[in-house]
Amino acid sequence: MNEAQQAGLQIDWAGLAPMIIVFAAAFGGLLVEAAVPRARRLVVQTALAVAALLAALVAVILNRGKASAAFSIEGTDLGSVVLDGPGLFLQGTIAVLSVIAVLLLAERRTTRGGDFVAEAAVVADSAADRSQQREDGATEIFPLTLFAVVGMMMFVVAGDLLTMFVALEMFSLPLYLLCGLAKRRRLISQEAALKYFLLGAFASAFYVYGMAMLYGFAGTVDLAGINQAGVSSGQPRLLLYIGVAMLAVAMLFKAAAVPFHMWTPDVYTGAPTPVTALMAACVKVAAFGGLLRVFNVGLESSAWDWHMILTIIAIATMLGGAIFAVTQRNIKRLLAYSSIANAGYLLIGIITLGDAVGSTMFYLAAYGFTAIAAFAVVSLVRDGDEEATHLSRWAGLGKKSPGTAAVFTVLMLALAGLPFTSGFTAKFGLFADALGAGEVGLVIVGVVSSAILAFPYLRVVVLLWLNEPAPDAPTVNLPSPMAGSVVAVGVAATLVLGVAPGFLLDIVDQASTFLNT
Amino acid sequence: MNELPLLSALVAVPLIGAVVVASIKRENAGAAKWTALAVSGLVAVLTALVAFGFDYSAGAPWLQFTESYTWIEAWDLSLSWGVDGIALLLVALTAGLTPIAMLAAWRDLDAVKRSVPAFFALILALQAAMLATFLASNVLLFYFFFEAMLVPMYFLIGSYGTGPKKQYAAVKFFLYSLVGGLFMLVAVIGLWVHSGGVFDWQTLVAAEPMEAGSLQNWLFLGFFIAFAIKAPFFPFHTWLPDAGGAAPAAVAALLVGVMDKIGTFAILRYCIPLFPDATQTFAPWVIGMSVIGVLYAAFVAIGQTDLKRLVAYTSIAHFGFIGIGIFAFTQASATGAVLYMFNHGLATGLLFIVVGFLAIRRGSAQIADYGGAAKTLPLLAGIFLFAGLASLSLPGTAPFISEFLVLFGAFSENEPVAVLAALGIILAAAYVLWMYQRTMQGDRNPALDEVPAMKRDLTLREKVLVAPLVIAILGFGFYPQPLIDAVEPAVDNTLLFISGEQAELPAAEGVSNE
């Protein structure tokens, strides 16, 4: 350490501040668990998490316009953490979306004690488990979430593969845990956690192996260095191919692209809905943020080598997600497949490279708000204490709860990409950039996929408004201000980004240049 | 002339009206109805102001009353409005037909447990979207409303429709139109990329014409498929009989009378000036489709057992005539096609509304449920016959002029097409008269006597609402000159692109209120 300082190690503390703040708050949350009486933990944890994330957001905003490495020695940049336009924008997006997700985690009014189990280690469906159904959920979820958020924030600014791997593990591990903490249907929840963990661990192994190959090829794990080596390296090109393929498998797994999507419907269904919302919004931003950086900064010079295979994956993802969504009867699975199809559209942005960085980021933000709000509404519609996730149970909701049904209709139309919603703005921007770069085929497949996908969305709208409710139809539980504001913010953002997206378009336009490209 | 933002008001008034009406409580159905009617009356007044201020002379600017307000600068999306003679006619049709449709549906909802304010709010929202598509002079703005209008229509059919298949019909309508719209979206983006980020229609039209070739062909197809589905042309028509059959009669009148015209209007407004070469390349195919549509739909109409589906099929046949008129590229046929859009809106609108009168009395639109109905409903039967005759283009009614012009113009270009299409007139006589005979004449269906409503002839409200349509059909039948005068300059301007003389266009009236 001392030596390093003497050697002139400069650290951009302000640039690291967002991550440091959230990291500190996560540890603070652990202390709260130990020190604060149980009855008050929820309030303290929520306040701490929200305050930390907002502070991180402010810190991100203060960093705007930066384009430099966070660490440097005597003027030479160390690539591990890179603060540039896309990185900062994605960090800010993650901060905003995770504030909303945290509010959803804190919701306790729609079902007694919240959606989370008090003690996850109790055997599912045992007597002890049944008795803890009435207890308040554990509050460890807040520090866990904050750890995951730090990982995501780091993932999108990581400038070398090693830092990226640390970040990847950092946001994955808490999420595996969070998936298994549902209070109802605990076996499904635990199955989801195990499945996500095993497959995720598998993906991590792929990542490390791919990183090793790329190191063998380029002699460095630095993304800019790998890009350089793509032109000048004398090593066998096979190393590059294998490395890129392995790396892509791992990252596309997180991004839920076909054929690495199998976990998505099960995990989205099994996980507690607030966690699903967190995954659908924030993890998507992080995963695609990472993909954007890896392909734009690290693999841009070898675009010819991966263009074809990534195109095939994008097409499979768009069509696969849309076609499977048609057959779904469970609202959470439907949204899961919709998120897969949306991953396909986002892959168009990755393939298009530099021209589409801005519109991809816009898409991520727009989709994040819509997805969180959709899952928040799902968490409100209940059969007794349990969520009514089977679609048939949603029939006629418009008669009994027109407000909720109207909100969900707006969200469905936004996902279908109708004008005056953020779904249209996002798709238009992305497709326009891709078409401008000559990706005609991908855009046409994207449009076909949107057309297929419109059908399941529309069927939900039909169910909501045109069908008669069952006599024992589920109730929409009145949310507390927590979940209420989640829905309100999500829908408001969906409409604002559809009607007046100019300000955000300007921001992503200014923030669309990676350092070292 | 440009002091008042009339066109913005034309879009904004029904839109604000929709929000106001939607916020009225379900219990105050009467207040909702009257508010909605008042709003649509105000729209009609605004339309009249535009019509009186419009410059009908040949050298007048193509688009008049232009306004422009920047919306999303990055995409060259602006709230740009402008009206030409063609759009003016269709705006007038929309403004006139909407209050009539509202009056026609006045009591339809009394029996069903559906929200009355929501129904009228949806109609106003639909009107706003339709007006916006006619008035938009920005391609992306047009697309926005082209898609957005699906939502109110979807609910009007699916939620307020009749019959067991209304949900199916609503979803089919929505998906068909959405898929067409998505094809158009790709072409819209393609156009944007090609033009270097320009969506303003006046700029696009004034620019160098796009070079002929595969790009222009593909872009044309993207636009055309969306419009052909909307119109609908054979073979994209299958959603219309379902939607028209399931929609409430008043909504069907708006659907077939106005909304479907957006497809043919947009072909004139967008396909021809933006892609003139491709339009000519594909013209033989379109004319072929149109001729098949005229004959096929007429045959199928003869075989229908449901009045609303029958009227829907007759409309598909009529859209075939419009297609022939546009793609024959003669002044007479294209003018005829535009008049056809207007007159068809009047005649078929009236026909749907009268069928609605029958259906609400009888509780069914099946032809077999009628027979000899004229005995107790003489006036209604008379109007029914009148509407039928108008839609088969009897001389003396307005549709005769337009059909004559289309065939006249087409004959000079392509005799076999005109001859084949003329067969459609004979078939039209068959389906209209047979429909009338089976429902109104002949042996009286004894079941009718058990329905008390079937003895109640036209009420005052019903008389008041059909009167303007009857007068318009007769009036424009004998004196169509004002319509022709309004349309001809715009048609001439459009056809300049086909002959490659677009340099002679009158200068645009470049007034914008930034």
Automatic annotation (TrEMBL), chain A:
Purpose: NDH-1 shuttles electrons from NADH, via FMN and iron-sulfur (Fe-S) centers, to quinones in the respiratory chain. The immediate electron acceptor for the enzyme in this species is believed to be a menaquinone. Couples the redox reaction to proton translocation (for every two electrons transferred, four hydrogen ions are translocated across the cytoplasmic membrane), and thus conserves the redox energy in a proton gradient.
UniProt-listed NCBIfam families: NDH_I_N, PRK05777.1-4
GO cellular component: endomembrane system; plasma membrane
Family: Belongs to the complex I subunit 2 family.
Subunit (UniProt): NDH-1 is composed of 14 different subunits. Subunits NuoA, H, J, K, L, M, N constitute the membrane sector of the complex.
Alphabetized GO MF terms: NADH dehydrogenase (quinone) (non-electrogenic) activity; NADH dehydrogenase (ubiquinone) activity; quinone binding
Name of the protein in question: NADH-quinone oxidoreductase subunit N
Domain NADH:quinone oxidoreductase/Mrp antiporter transmembrane positions: 158-452
GO BP, one annotated term: ATP synthesis coupled electron transport
Source organism superkingdom: Bacteria
E.C. number(s) listed in UniProt: 7.1.1.-
Reactions catalysed: a quinone + NADH + 5 H(+)(in) = a quinol + NAD(+) + 4 H(+)(out)
Annotated keywords: Cell membrane, Membrane, NAD, Quinone, Translocase, Transmembrane, Transmembrane helix, Transport
Species per Swiss-Prot/TrEMBL record: Glycomyces harbinensis
InterPro entries, per database record: NADH-Q_OxRdtase_suN/2 (IPR010096), ND/Mrp_TM (IPR001750)
Predominant place of localization: membrane
UniProt membrane topology term: Multi-pass membrane protein
Residues passing through the membrane, by range: 13-35, 42-62, 88-106, 141-158, 164-182, 194-218, 238-263, 275-295, 307-327, 334-354, 360-381, 402-420, 440-466, 486-505
Automatic annotation (TrEMBL), chain B:
UniProt key word Ligase: no
A GO cellular component entry from the record: membrane
Coiled coil: none
Keyword Transmembrane helix: yes
Positions of the NADH:quinone oxidoreductase/Mrp antiporter transmembrane domain: 136-422
Membrane-related topology note: Multi-pass membrane protein
One BP term from GO: electron transport coupled proton transport
Subcellular location: Endomembrane system; Membrane
Transmembrane segments: 6-24, 36-54, 85-106, 118-136, 142-161, 173-195, 215-234, 246-270, 282-303, 310-332, 338-360, 380-411, 417-436, 464-481
Any one Gene Ontology molecular-function term assigned to this protein's record: ubiquinone binding
Keyword entries, A-Z: Membrane, Transmembrane, Transmembrane helix
Similarity comment: family membership: Belongs to the complex I subunit 4 family.
Name assigned to this protein: NADH-quinone oxidoreductase subunit M
Organism: Glycomyces harbinensis
